[in-house]
Amino acid sequence: MDERSSAIEVIKLIKEIKELLRKAMTTQFENMEITSSQWMILGILMKNGRMKIGDLSKEVGLSNSTVTGIIDRLEKRNFVKRVRDSKDRRVIYIELTEEFEKNKKGLNLSMDNKLNEFLENVSETELKKVIDGLGILKDVLTKNLKGDDENN
């Protein structure tokens, strides 16, 4: 297979995988009455603790206005709250609410169960190959992007 055919095949596979994951996760998120974008934001906050909207935006790769809309919807559900910095009232942090903290175990279990269902029929060897392959792809893309940044 020549380089052009290989590149086209990689792009095609990535698009197909992305669509399959989107469909699977959308179904799961609908059952939990939450969108994938909301879940992504909640996951980042669970991992990092309170954050500014700008930092959240960078982390998820979405615009500040898009993240603000997601935060608004999460705030209406009492999953997150906005907290002003005590030293600089202009700075606003987003943090998880106590209500969400109480209920997040159920959400986590739902996601864990769904991921376990996906991986149920995959051998350890196959899973390792997938992880290794994705790691290689990430490294290649990262190196190329760094090279592009240096050339610009």
Automatic annotation (TrEMBL):
SMART domains per record: HTH_MARR
Keyword Transcription regulation (UniProt): yes
Domain HTH marR-type intervals: 7-139
Domain of life, per lineage: Bacteria
Keywords, comma-separated and alphabetical: DNA-binding, Transcription, Transcription regulation
SUPFAM superfamilies xref list: Winged helix' DNA-binding domain
UniProt GO MF annotations: DNA-binding transcription factor activity; sequence-specific DNA binding
Pfam families associated with the record: MarR
Protein name: Transcriptional regulator
